[in-house]
Design a protein that fits this description.
This protein has three helices and 16 strands.
Length: about 230
C-alpha cells in the first residue's frame, strides 16, 4: 500500500525518497505486466533430525496470466537447468492468451531430476513469448533460495554511449546469476531494468539514462554490481 518514502528511512516502500527504484519496484513491474508466466510449486520442505531437510516437492505447475484486452497467441518455453551450466531437459508449447485468464498450461515432473542431481543444484527457467519476443520470464527454485548452491563466476561488462546522457550496459556472465543488480554511485540515473537474471554466455543489455552528460569511461569506473551469491 506504500509506494514511496518521503524522507530517508528503511521501509517496505518500493521507491526511495529520492525517486530511485528499489528491487521491489523492478520486480513488481514484471508481475503486474499484462502478460505473465509463473509457476506454482506444491509441497513443502521441513528440517528433521540433524538439521537435514526433507522435501515433498515432486512437480511444478506452469501458469500464464493475461490481462490485455486483445487475445494473443504465444509460446511457453521451459528449461530445467543445473547450476553447472547444463540443460537437463527443455520443452515448449503453443498457448492461447485471453483477457482475464489465469491458465495452468503444463505440469512438470521434477522428482527424478531432484533425486539424481539434488534440489540445491537445480533451477527452472520459464519464458513466455508473444510475436517472437520474450514478454515475460521467470526463474523458479525447488528449495528456498538460501539453500541453492549458487556459483560465482566472471562478468564481462560492455558500455556503449548512445547519447551524451544515455548508455547501453551489456552484461555477460560465465555462470547463472540470480537477481543480478548494478549501481552507479554518485550518478543520478534511471535504468530500463535491474535485478535481473544472467544466464551463462547470454548477453543481457540495459539502457541507463542520466540527468547529466557522462562519458563511457566514467560509467565503467563507477559501475558496481552483485548478485544473490555475493550476499552470503
Amino acid at each position: 500500500w506504500q509506494l514511496n518514502d518521503c524522507w530517508p528511512v528503511a521501509s517496505w516502500s518500493s521507491i526511495e525518497f529520492t525517486g530511485r527504484w528499489k528491487a521491489l519496484h523492478y520486480v513488481a513491474r514484471r508481475f503486474f505486466a499484462p502478460a505473465l508466466v509463473c509457476a506454482y510449486v506444491p509441497g513443502e520442505e521441513n528440517a528433521i533430525t540433524g538439521n537435514y531437510r526433507r522435501s515433498s516437492v515432486r512437480e511444478v505447475h506452469l501458469y500464464t496470466v493475461y490481462d490485455s484486452p486483445q487475445s494473443a497467441a504465444g509460446t511457453l518455453r521451459w528449461r530445467l537447468c543445473h547450476l553447472d551450466g547444463r540443460t537437463l531437459s527443455k520443452g515448449a508449447q503453443k498457448v492461447t492468451l485471453c483477457y482475464g485468464e489465469s491458465v495452468k498450461q503444463r505440469t512438470l515432473d521434477v522428482a527424478a531430476a531432484m533425486a539424481k542431481h539434488g534440489r540445491d543444484h537445480l533451477y527452472l527457467r520459464l519464458e513466455l513469448l508473444i510475436g517472437g519476443a520474450v514478454a515475460s520470464e521467470e526463474v523458479v527454485f525447488l528449495t528456498a533460495p538460501r539453500f541453492v548452491d549458487l556459483p560465482r563466476g566472471k562478468t564481462k561488462i560492455g558500455v556503449k554511449r548512445l547519447s551524451p546522457t544515455k548508455v547501453r550496459l551489456t552484461f555477460t556472465s560465465t555462470v547463472f546469476q540470480h537477481r543480478f543488480a548494478f549501481e552507479l554511485p554518485g550518478l543520478a540515473h534511471t535504468a530500463s531494468d535491474n535485478y535481473i537474471a544472467l544466464h551463462p554466455g547470454e548477453p543481457r543489455s540495459v539502457e541507463v539514462t542520466f540527468e547529466r552528460a557522462v562519458t563511457a569511461d566514467k560509467v565503467r569506473r563507477l559501475l558496481t554490481f552483485r548478485s544473490l551469491a555475493d550476499t552470503f
